[in-house]
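Open question from group meeting: does this chain pack into something compact, or does most of it stay loose? Before anyone orders reagents, we agreed to write out a predicted structure and look at it together. Recording both the input and the output here so the notebook holds the full record.
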Amino acid sequence: MDALGKQFREIFKSNDIKIGMTELAKVTGVSPSQLRYWERKGFIHSQQDQQNKNHHFSLMTAYQVRTIKFYLDQGYTLQVAVQKEHERRTLGKVFRHFITDRIQSIDQDDNGDGLVMLGKLDDDPTKEVYARVDQDGKTTLHLRPVQDD
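Structure tokens returned:
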């Protein structure tokens, strides 16, 4: 993996990107008063500055808030929406681990198709898996002998 790809991977894994309550309310469509209530109930968490005034939320919390709102908009109670978000977050962690652990590189071939290298097979390290994303957005998986760089 190239140096820039490693840096982006570290940003994605670090979860250090923070936004304020006003920005969180704007991007999620959840009012600041609802966010404060959810935080008091322990459904979401923030970090506060030294004066304990400004709340800063992680990017993952933004996803969490938007997911809870989605389920509320579907007619679920807040308790059920929070439970459904928790179940979904568990799957999201699996996906995040897959992305950060398996994607080795992303390149482009001579035809302009994207190539996502997923690495060698665990049970046959002479073969590697990659995904091809064509210009229409169709993704196909492929197996080939390991390519030496």
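Observations to bring back to the group:
Helices lie at 3-14, 21-28, 32-40, 59-73, 78-102.
The radius of gyration is 20 Å.
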